[in-house]
Amino acid sequence: MPEIVARGRQQAEKILESLEGRHRVSLQTREWVLPSKDTRDNDWIVAANRQAHLDTEGEAAWTNRLIYGDNLLAMAALLAGDEHTPSLRGKVDLIYIDPPFDSKADYRTKVALPGVELEQRPTVIEQFAYSDTWSDGTASYLAMITPRLILMRELLSETGSIYVHLDWHVGHYVKLALDEVFGRGAFKNEIIWDYSFRMMDLPGFYNRKHDALYFYGKGPDTYFDMPKTAWTKDDLMKSRKQAIHVDEEGVEWIWMPGGKGNSKNKLRRVDEILQEGKAVSDVWDIPIISSSSKERVDYATQKPESLLERILLASCPEGGLVLDVFGGSGTTAAVAEKLGRRWITTDLGKPACMIMRKRLIDQGAKPFLYQAIGDYQVEAAKSSLGRSFRVGDLSGIVLSLYGALPLPPEDNPLRNLGAVVYGGKKTLVLVDSPNKLTGDATLRKAIAQRDHLLGGWDRVVVLGWNFEPSIGESITALNDARLEVLVIPPDLLDRLRKKGGIEKLRGQVRFSSLQYLTIKPVQRMCSGDVEQIKVTLDNYVLLSPEAINLDEENRKKLLKVANAEPLALIEYWAVDPDYDGRVFRSVWQDYRGNTANDDDPLRVVTAAEFNVPYQGGPRRVCVRVVDVFGFEAEVVKMVAEPGK
User: Fold this and answer.
1) What is the sign of the dihedral through the CA atoms of 167, 168, 172 and 173?
2) If you ran DSSP here, which 8-state letter would residue 325 be given?
3) How many CB atoms lie within 10 A of CB 238?
4) Which residue numbers delimit the DNA methylase N-4/N-6 domain (predicted)?
């Protein structure tokens, strides 16, 4: 354990040292979400309020955040700060985490489509969130959690506190790590959450019906507002082991302790005691979420809102900031939103982030940012290959796994070009940098190199990590049969690290094609100061089914649905009627399960109709979709003013 903690400290210290450098981790805003889930909402005031939110973006003192990506990198970015939000070091009031319990459970994602249900195995990236599997068992689990706890302590304010939610698998081990990171004197409580529901007769041991929450404060003046529950007269009599006395006027009295430092009992009015409530103990009898509950979002490890309500009311002041870096089903953010607390939540699983985004939209949350880790692959490469690695090193690995030989250095200064010669045909291979989004400019450059470099090539293949959402439109507009664009698997570096080298991974990496979206002509209808916009989806093509972790049987089911009803693959879509090309501001959204728009839980509506304040001239309308597997695609259309 001391060795694990020491290594964790070294890892955390390297991250903290890197915060001062030029290449510190940053967050990219993928979407600025202004929840509006009802297409029938034609209220002008609502539309005007949405416009007001748009106009004040960046001026508000705080915007809540949902972050997709490794929480270690997310916390590094929060500690570093950016142009919109200064560093949050020492600014977080409460951290609640419900990390995986090292239960060796295999949380496969079930995807329901019309007529079929698919079972998707988690990607290597998402195994961290869903499979709870680490190579060296508990030691690896502790090596994962320790540097994260150290960064959490850096984020906490001096009056802040942390609750770590675990069960019998690793709770006692993590308690030792918490003692090392926060100090044994910072320990407040081990809270027992008794969630007894079904009793099963299991051989050899008692029924396991509780989790433990370890509650630590950062400093000596931890904020804490004792939660109270209602007394009943029976509770009171049982607690005091005595009867209630009634005086001549019918007033009820009972003997109670005199208080701190006063050992004498005194008579107190029962009605006053009942009104004050009973201080909560460290054993919490809170039921789990029933299968019929309105809270349920079909997430394997979802926790009840009443559990988080108690924690937030006790340990986060009104308007305070709550952080949950294992966001899961989004209960922490949902409860924080309801209770008037600010929040940040993160998760490494795309399904979890989708569930959280939908849940927050569904409850009409205030506008929030959906962000991702900037340069995720670069950070993963530094972790795999050492901090001194160069992007060219990474390009060389990708070329090798694709089966291309690098071009000579004099023709390949960035070390990102390779060649495949087969059947008398020469193919140029270009690996784009993980530092940027592959888009139209890269494709045109690749075509120019194909035509002119070293006497020309028969075709060119562009391998990219991250893509401009409009990449599908760019490929269609270029209409070049000798250009192919493929996706580098996002978990490539994790797989490389797991397999232990390029040779062991050779022949097992698939570079998949992209997906794209088409829409019907956008309609604008003006009436005075208001205009109605109608956007209708046309087609969605999933060109990369091989990138999805499905077995052969599930892959056949997917292709059947994709061919028969392609729009059924869309999980979520949103519209920005005035896209600036930088930040996507979604003022209208729909998602599967949103019955405000229709009664079909397995399909999104295919048309959006909403009102916005009138604007002269053309509008740049952007439509973005996310499919059931987490892939994104977008279309941007310039729409002329009606009658122009």
Assistant:
1) negative
2) S
3) 10
4) 92-355
Picking from 174, 173, 153, the residue whose alpha carbon sits closest to that of residue 164 is 174
Helices within 386-438 (DSSP H only) = 391-402
What does the CA dihedral 235, 238, 239, 242 come to, rounded to 10 degrees? 120
One domain, residues 250 and 342: no
pLDDT, greater one: 174 or 468: 174
Sole residue written with tokens 């931890």: 222
HSE at residue 190, side-chain half, CA atoms within 13 A, is 14
Chain mean position to CA 515:
22
Cα dist. 542→492, 513, 560 in Å?
A: 21, 9, 12
Q: Give me the domain span that covers residue 498.
A: 379-513
Which tokens in the block code for residue 637? Answer: 């259309």
Taking each continuous run of H as one helix and of E as one strand, the counts in the chain are 18, 34
d(CA 585, CA 576): 5
The half-sphere exposure of 243 on its side-chain side, counting CA atoms within 13 A, is: 2
**Lookup: tokens for 441:** 């400019």
Domain shared by 343 and 442, yes or no: no
Residues 370 and 386 in one domain: no
Question: Whole-prediction pTM value?
Answer: 0.80
Q: Cα dist. 454→404, 428, 450, 481 in Å?
A: 16, 10, 9, 21
The candidate with the shortest Cα–Cα distance to 403, out of 463, 482, 330, is 463
290 plus 275 within the same structural domain? no
Instruction: Specify if 126 maps to a domain.
Output: no
Q: Convert the pLDDT of each residue in 419-478 to its tens digit.
A: 999 888 999 999 998 767 788 999 999 999 999 999 999 999 999 887 876 787 888 889
